[in-house]
């Protein structure tokens, strides 16, 4: 499986604080290591919305 994240990109991701990493880069990194990024949002009315890759 070809990774869409370079070694340099992985190093940069691992050295940054999580709030400094764009979500699309974090998702690509997690996919490269076999994981998946998902985000759960709770709206003001209490509704919960799942955002992310729904494969």
The radius of gyration computed from the alpha-carbon positions, rounded to a whole number of angstroms, is 14 Å
Beta-strand content bin = 15-25%
Compute the number of helices: 2
Shape type: elongated
Keywords:
55 residues, 2 helices, alpha+beta, two-stranded antiparallel ribbon
Blueprint of the fold:
Elements: H1 7-15, H2 23-32, E1 38-42, E2 48-52
Antiparallel strand pairs: 1-2
Can you walk through the features of this model?
It is a single chain. With 55 residues, this protein is an alpha+beta fold. It has one domain. Helices cover 35% and strands 18% of the residues. The protein is built from 2 helices and 2 strands, in the order H-H-E-E. A two-stranded antiparallel ribbon has the order 1-2. A hairpin with a 5-residue loop joins strand 1 and strand 2.
Brief sketch in words of this structure:
With 55 residues, this protein is an alpha+beta fold.
